Amino acid sequence: MSDRVLKIVIHVVRLILGCTFILSGFVKAVDPKGFSYKIEEYLQVVNAQFPDWLNLPLVAAVVICCAEFVLGIYLLLGLRRKFTAIATLTVCVVFTIISVLLVIFHPVHDCGCFGEFISLTDAQTLIKNVILLGLAIMLMRNPQVAKPLVPEGWQWFVSLYTCVFIFVFCLRSLYYLPLIDFRQYKVGADLREMVFPTHEDIKPEEISDFMVLDTLSEDQTAQILFKKEPTMLIIAPLLSEASAGVAERLASISDWCNDKGYDIYCLTASPLKDIRKWCYYNDAEYPFLIADHTLLKTMVRSNPGLMLLRDGVIRNKWSANNLPEVEDASVDEKQLEAAVGNNGKILLKILLWYLLPMLLIIMLSNIIRRKTKSAKIPKVIKTLKTPKDSNTSNNSINSITTKNTKTMRKKIVAGNWKMNMTLQEGVALAKELNELLAADKPNCGVVICTPFIHLASIAPMLDTNVLKLGAENCADKEKGAYTGEVSAAMVKSTGAEYVILGHSERRAYYGETPEILKEKVNLALANGLKVIFCIGEVLEEREAGKQNEVVAAQLKGSLYDLTAEQFANVVLAYEPVWAIGTGKTATADQAEEMHAFIRQEIAKQFGPEVAENTTIQYGGSCKPSNAKELFAKPDVDGGLIGGASLKAADFKGIIDAWKE
Ligand code: PEP
After folding, report:
1. 641 lines ligand 1 (CB under 6 A)
2. Among the atoms of ligand 1, which is closest to the Cα of residue 641?
3. Is the pTM of this model over 0.85?
4. Do 261 and 124 share a domain, yes or no?
5. Is residue 604 assigned to a domain?
6. Measured from the CA of 500, which atom of ligand 1 is nearest?
7. Is residue 273 located within the same domain as residue 218?
8. Distance 527 CA to ligand 1 centre (A)
9. Across 616-641, average pLDDT
10. What is the pLDDT of residue 204?
């Protein structure tokens, strides 16, 4: 798959996963109580015990819906990409396992993935979760493809605002009633038609559990539903758990109903002793009817809640926290009906409270980022020619650096021993070099990159103030059954600090593609190694004038998914392949031209500040005799040295080229 196609695919994957998680988190946050009932069912299946005071199902419901929503936003905005990919995969694996168990054992009816919003069969849930798992795996393999929509410095705000928003929204849904009623008992629903359908297209089983009995077990359903006059229903699934603080309000509502001549009942699933207790302690004079516990929990997400019925139709509903004010005798039933909240408008307002600040932050942060970037661009960058232009003439080289900025950049001379030196020879060379540099301190960074077998023996011998250690390669896999490979973590564990990646010999002889190198770079950086990343064109490409194009593609193919922070640990080494080990050096002007171009590309991708701080080494038949001329160029910040690094004196000669 080409890079472009992969990018598009991963964007789509992110979009699908992000929207799914946002939807699933949001609809659960609309009705967290409903979702907590589902969790209760799951906990009952595994016979989980938890103390009542903890209310684990509700706590878990709030945590899960908030986590899903936040994860969805992270996916959509491309935030904390590695963490997000791991979290998404973990969630999808857990969901898939649960849905397999659902298909096999059918422990609960309806998985509850989308709360009460969408009801899926077990098979549909499994298919959905397998698809999401596949997408999560794809994302996990390419977590860095998406660019964050919000710059790093602003991401904490987005995270905090999103967490606070969804948590407060959950609390609001719990305090009042869900803004969207996903169940049958929504305001406007014709209960009579649903319980005693006169039209064939209404399935009676949809609401077949609606039945209320008096304390003598006489069915009172029809009496309530066929009443033309208003009927007030206090819904208290379990009186022992009902908030008794509202008993006084309920009593005045009861008085108001009596004054108006309306019926009022308390529907409960509580045993008689609890009903008596409630009446005794709260002076409740309203009659009680018995109904199914689940039915009552479904009718109003509050204990107690209140429902106004007229002519079999639900006219309004209230939670215990916003019971209607009826102390004033002039309040009539029409006013109570008219007080139906405009939930659509409220929901829109709430969503705007989230979306507007988020859009503002996304726009503002990007404008500020762009502004700071261009403010930091030295004057000369504004006159930069396009890559094609800068390719055409030596005289048109427009370096974004000056001598001053160059001195601020780290200069590094690194040796690449390649497949040379036995262990004993290597140890002796490292020792000799270490002594030379300890005695005559270099005024540039010096690194020797050795075969793997040398690393652990050489690392303890080096004075890292003057000489650092690196490997010549590392694996593109984290760990496991990859015989003969050496991982970035293993390299790091030897004491090495650097690793060369993308060397032309590895690209040519070992088939290392930009994708493989991308993996290697990510793993090396993740394991705390600094990367010396090699780029460069072959002779035919230079002869065809394609060197800029080639080098730009190499940069883009393996490094452009890094953040600026990660990129700060990358040293670039421009090595024209035609100059490696051939004795043919690029002229200092050729090197400078390409280095300036590379820096310009880095500025485009990561900003001029990063570009100015990026060390770009030259490699390819660099020797003590030509090092000074090469290093004198403003954009050449050192060298990657092959053959000449195998002799301490030659290597030292190149290092000394940095001395006046
Ligand atoms: C190299 O292989 O990185 C290199 C620059 O080799 P040489 O100096 O031998 O050309």
Report:
1. yes
2. 8
3. no
4. no
5. yes
6. 3
7. yes
8. 26
9. 95
10. 47
